[in-house]
Design brief:
16 helices; globular; metal-binding; alpha+beta; transferase; 5-stranded mixed β-sheet; nucleotidyltransferase; nucleus
């Protein structure tokens, strides 16, 4: 999907975006294109691709892409941390073809320049024992009375994988308030220890009460005594939505997508900050049922009101969403509520 989007083919990108979750949900191994015929999002072209893969074990179109200069350059640039499809295409159109060409490219953001500088480091898998040591280092930091802070390493490490692409650290505090302001002090302490080295993303919302009160840090760290950079992410959640953050940052992506689709089928919206009763407005954005009720009452009472008045109400409601998540304290409660079979973390490598 990244490639098609970067090449400007939004229609094809969207087609694959719709088809992937349909295929992922199938309870059987595909052995013939006939098995997917008629499924939503699976058109004739995609059926042909599936049949070719089933029959030959490969896709000729991909083999063509492997030798296409534009495709190769865009794919390479897209592997730089922080570079999306539009930026990758722009870099190609400027005339860049190799990573070396980007060393003096002023249009790159600070984070993208860091991603370029440590390109090979970031792409190197991290052995499980190293993740364990670095996660232990994070959890052992003395934070002046915050001994009760819960710090857990999620991602592929929690799923039991032998190596990880990065380290996902999920944090909360059981008292529901001491997580506020924790991340800034925590990152500073880790920098003083020469563990955290470069910043990529740093946002704090807990003290302002914005964005569900979740604080985020993405950066690079080093194993003690080494210079090899490793990607590390910290997400600090209020205790009442910690279970949702833990599910999202444990993964895997396939499971997360299945849970989101299941939630939508039951009239909810699921993300890392909660499970929200939600419906869709005509603009495609989600609004809660009470807002829709207000909207219906307003439109009924306005009767002969101008179209402009109706549009203003519509625009107002399209910018809203249900803000109160269901109160579920554990991952299992979330699974149970959605009616999805419980999976231990090591069982989530779908």
């Amino acid at each position: 999907m990244f490639l098609w989007k970067a090449l400007g083919d939004d229609r094809r990108s969207f087609s694959y975006h719709k088809a992937i979750p349909v295929i992922e949900k199938l309870p059987f191994k595909i052995e013939s294109a006939e098995q997917v015929k008629g499924l939503p999002g699976i058109g004739k072209s995609l059926q042909d691709h599936i049949q070719e893969i089933v029959t030959t074990g490969k896709l000729s179109k991909l083999e063509h892409f492997e030798t296409d200069e534009k495709v190769c350059a865009i794919t390479l640039f897209g592997e730089i941390w922080g570079v999306g499809p539009a930026t990758a295409l722009k870099l190609y159109e400027i005339g860049h073809r190799r990573l070396e060409d980007l060393e003096n490219e002023d249009s790159l953001t600070t984070s993208q320049k860091i991603g370029l500088k440590y390109f090979d480091d970031i792409r190197t898998r991290i052995p499980r024992n190293e993740v364990k040591c670095q996660a232990s280092l994070s959890t052992s930091v003395d934070m002046d009375g915050n001994d009760l802070v819960l710090i857990l390493c999620g991602g592929s490490y929690r799923r039991g994988k032998a190596s990880c692409g990065d380290m996902d650290i999920v944090v909360t505090h059981p008292d529901g308030k001491s997580h506020k302001g924790f991340l800034s002090k925590f990152v500073k302490r880790l920098k003083d220890m020469k563990f955290v080295r470069e910043d990529l993303v740093f946002t704090t919302h807990s003290e302002q009460g914005t964005d569900s009160g979740v604080d985020t840090y993405f950066g690079l760290c080093t194993y003690p005594g080494r210079e090899l950079r490793r990607r590390i992410d910290f997400k600090v959640y209020p205790r009442d939505i910690y279970a949702f953050g833990l599910i999202a940052w444990t993964g895997n992506d396939v499971l997360n997508r299945r849970l989101r689709l299941l939630a939508e089928s039951k009239g909810f919206r699921l993300d890392d900050t909660g499970l929200f009763p939600a419906t869709h407005s005509s603009g495609g954005k989600r609004v809660n049922e009470s807002d829709l009720t207000v909207f219906r009452i307003c439109t009924n009472r306005l009767g002969q009101a101008t179209l402009t008045g109706i549009q203003q109400i519509t625009i107002l409601l399209q910018g809203t969403r249900a803000t109160a998540s269901l109160k579920l304290q554990t991952e299992k409660e979330v699974f149970d509520y959605l009616g999805f079979p419980w999976l231990e973390p090591h069982e989530r490598n779908l």
